[in-house]
Specification:
86 residues; globular; single chain; mainly alpha
Length: 86
């Protein structure tokens, strides 16, 4: 299925924070656009929003930052386990 055929909620769920998927979806809509340039744009945007969310969440709170990092690592392990069993 093409990304452009999905409803917005399903598309967002499918794309997640994968810059290459975002670039592919963008280039489905704008096929003449350079895919690598789109990838760079989306990768930078995703990383920037991640950094911004992390800094707002943990500003001046070392304990909060350590807790946040632990939660992220738990989620990564969970997703890795799910992918391994899929």
């Amino acid at each position: 299925m093409r990304y452009t055929d999905m409803n917005p909620g399903d598309m967002l769920q499918s794309l997640g924070d994968d810059a290459m998927k975002w670039a592919d979806a963008f280039c489905e809509q704008f096929p003449d656009f350079d895919r690598e340039a789109a990838f760079g744009w989306f990768a930078n945007a995703i990383e920037n929003t991640w950094d911004t969310r992390c800094s707002r969440l943990t500003a001046g709170d070392e304990e909060g930052w350590n807790d946040f990092k632990e939660q992220v690592e738990r989620h990564r392990r969970c997703w890795a386990e799910l992918r391994a069993t899929a």
